[in-house]
Design a protein that fits this description.
There is one protein chain. The protein is mainly β and 190 residues long. Helices cover 4% and strands 56% of the residues. It has a seven-stranded antiparallel beta sheet with strand order 4-3-2-1-7-6-5, with no helix packed on it. It has a seven-stranded antiparallel beta sheet with strand order 13-12-11-10-9-8-14. A hairpin with a 6-residue loop joins β5 and β6. The longest helix has 7 residues.
Length: 190
């Protein structure tokens, strides 16, 4: 099993739905944690989707593709006068667009003797947040608790280095920076 950052989207008549977050990939399947409409957590498995995904050119460790599932759905049968005559089962095909990126799990940067500044200087900027004077994201440390290493103060001469905990919630993931909640969805990938 390998840890991945994923995005799974599905388009239908009423719009599109998108799920993003951290998950795991096996040789065949994508495994993600989800929350149902009534707030209960469950594990969602996209079976055999890895074979449908191909490497993204120019981006190391990124894969994308389309995955199809066949589902059985029950429809109520009605007569021309509107009376119910029972239920009919039909098979429908659902298309998902899947993107995932393998997580950098190099052990030399986790713990060890490296401080925040050394870790930030070691890695290039891969995301940017324009609020709070400008935040450059340099590295994400994945584990039981996820941490983001960033440089603050890009619009001024006073730069500071930070290691911030990534708070995961039902609605969105965020970091807390000087008492301000910054959603990860507001960061721009570079």
């Amino acid at each position: 099993m390998k840890k991945v950052v994923y995005s799974v989207s599905r388009a239908n008549r009423s719009g599109s739905t998108k799920m993003t977050g951290l998950g795991f990939i096996t040789d065949n399947d994508l495994i993600i944690a989800c929350t149902s409409k009534n707030g209960k957590a469950y594990i969602r498995v996209f079976e055999d989707c890895v074979k449908d995904c191909h490497a993204v050119s120019g981006r190391e460790g990124e894969f994308k593709g389309a995955h199809y599932e066949v589902r059985e759905v029950e429809f109520e049968k009605k007569t021309s006068s509107g009376e119910s005559t029972g239920y009919e089962t039909r098979e429908i095909e659902v298309e998902y667009s899947i993107w995932y990126k393998l997580v950098d799990t190099r052990q030399d940067l986790r713990g060890g003797n490296m401080n925040k500044r050394e870790i930030c200087d070691e890695h290039p900027t891969f995301a940017y947040y324009s609020g709070c004077g400008g935040l450059e994201v340099r590295f994400i440390e994945y584990g039981i608790t996820n941490f983001m290493y960033l440089i603050a103060g890009q619009w001024s001469s006073k730069k500071s280095y930070h290691k911030l905990k990534i708070h995961s919630g039902n609605k969105y993931d965020c970091i807390m920076f000087h008492g301000r909640r910054c959603r990860l969805s507001d960061f721009i990938k570079i």
